[in-house]
Design brief:
Elements (H helix, E strand, L loop, with lengths): L34 H17 L15 E2 L14 H16 L5 H25 L6 H12 L14 H11 L8 H27 L6 H12 L14 H4 L9 E2 L2 E2 L6 H22 L1 E2 L1 H15 L6 H16 L10 H17 L4 H22 L18
Parallel strand pairs: 1-4
Antiparallel strand pairs: 2-3
Helix pairs in contact: 1-3, 1-6, 2-13, 3-4, 3-6, 3-11, 4-6, 6-7, 6-11, 9-10, 10-11, 10-13
Length: 397
């Protein structure tokens, strides 16, 4: 994401985009490629939910919930917002979830809610970047991956790629009028997005790893596997050349110029060190504002813009991974056009005005309240049906 819009040229002139790609087998060295490993990740999340939710601190044996306390950074940017009241609602619902001793059925509800909102977050994030495909295909691919099924990237070099295309046509008939390279690219973007998201959540939420440069680079490498950078009148950049590799070219969006390449390593190290220290301090004091800290470092990451592509999707994965651990939720962003416009406006103002993450934190808090309310309803047996705009596609924003 070129804070807030990823460079759009990459989605054009896709002829020959996959000439140098090969079908990825289950034996690939990519960390999350093994179905067995992904099945273990699913089980790991279920085990974490069984111990305590939100999982929060490293101190699992103490099982003492952290106190959620607001920072003073929230900024109201719409007339109908009251950050103080929103935060009060959020803390009340987090406390209610924390203090409930869930039975096995309720633990399953929490796990299903996390998985369902991960799918929605992937779809929305892809829509912001004009990546991926439609809703039905996103759901089907993500659920198969989260179930541990062996799904790899597909190219026209694969002898069974036509079967993959027919399956995609069946689910989204409008794809028949699009180039096959474009469709296969969109499919690969969904598959790798799901694997990367699952990998990052497992590392930070289940294993309680710090968010380090190495973890971010590995997640980015998974995200971009099988997806070359394609720009008009420019040579393709293969995934192995930019996946998990800090960029060496200058990039910008509109009037925003991102960090000069030579400064990226130092700024990324500082960001990761600061995040680790902020979390350590919060856990020592047993108080945290998950919405503020998630917004702050998601915004800081995309402002650095360390990679040549994929920064927007990864910044939202970082946001949601922190929220998942400390608030127990995932917030989808970008499912509808109006929300995408609101989100991108906030990111633009943050970049141009240099006024911090206050507006973004309020945006995140508002959506977190909705997710917490829905989770509490489901745990109480009051189900709310999610209606998804299935007509959404890459060209609607």
């Amino acid at each position: 994401m070129s804070s807030p819009i990823e460079m759009r040229g990459k989605r054009k002139s896709l002829a020959d985009a996959f000439d140098n790609l090969e079908l990825t087998s289950a034996s690939s060295s990519t960390p999350s490629s093994s179905p067995r490993k992904r099945t273990m990740m699913v089980q790991g999340l279920h085990n974490t939910i069984s111990k305590a939710w939100p999982s929060q601190s490293h101190r699992d044996t103490e099982n003492v919930p952290m106190t959620v306390r607001a920072d003073d950074i929230y900024r109201q940017y719409a007339y109908d917002q009251d950050p103080k009241k929103l935060f009060e609602k959020a803390t009340n619902w987090i406390t209610a979830i924390q203090t409930t001793a869930p039975d096995n059925a309720q633990k399953g509800i929490i796990a299903n809610e996390i998985e369902e909102t991960m799918v929605r977050a992937i779809f929305g994030s892809n829509m912001i970047e004009r990546a991926g495909l439609g809703w039905d295909i996103t759901v089907q691919l993500c659920k198969r991956i989260f179930a541990g099924e062996d799904i790899g990237v597909v190219s026209e070099r694969d002898t069974s790629y036509q079967l993959a295309l027919l399956d995609l046509y069946r689910q989204q008939p409008g794809l028949r009028d699009m180039p096959s390279q474009y469709i296969l690219r969109g499919r690969n973007e969904i598959v790798q997005h799901a694997k990367a998201f699952q990998y990052l959540i497992h590392a930070f939420v289940v294993e309680k790893q710090d968010i380090t440069e190495d973890l971010i680079k590995t997640t980015h490498k998974i995200l971009t596997k099988g997806v070359p950078i394609v720009e008009p009148d420019m040579p393709d950049v293969l995934p192995e050349k930019y996946g998990g590799v800090y960029r060496t070219v200058i990039v910008g969006a509109g009037t925003t110029n991102f960090t000069v390449p030579s400064f990226i390593p130092a700024q990324m190290k500082q960001m990761c060190d600061d995040l680790t220290q902020d979390i350590a301090t919060a856990e020592k004091q047993n108080t945290i504002d998950p919405f503020s800290i998630a917004s702050k470092y998601s915004l800081e990451f995309v402002s650095i813009h360390p990679f040549q592509d994929g920064n927007g999707r990864l910044c939202r994965m970082i946001l949601n991974t922190i929220l998942c651990r400390y608030a127990g939720i995932i917030i989808p962003i970008g499912e509808q056009g109006e929300e995408r416009t609101e989100y991108m406006g906030i990111k633009k103002r943050a970049s141009q005005d240099m006024e911090g993450h206050g507006e973004y934190a309020t945006f995140v808090l508002q959506r977190a309240v909705t997710r917490l309310r829905e989770m509490k309803k489901k745990l109480a047996g009051k189900h709310t049906k999610h209606t998804k705009g299935k007509a959404a596609n890459k060209t609607d924003n």
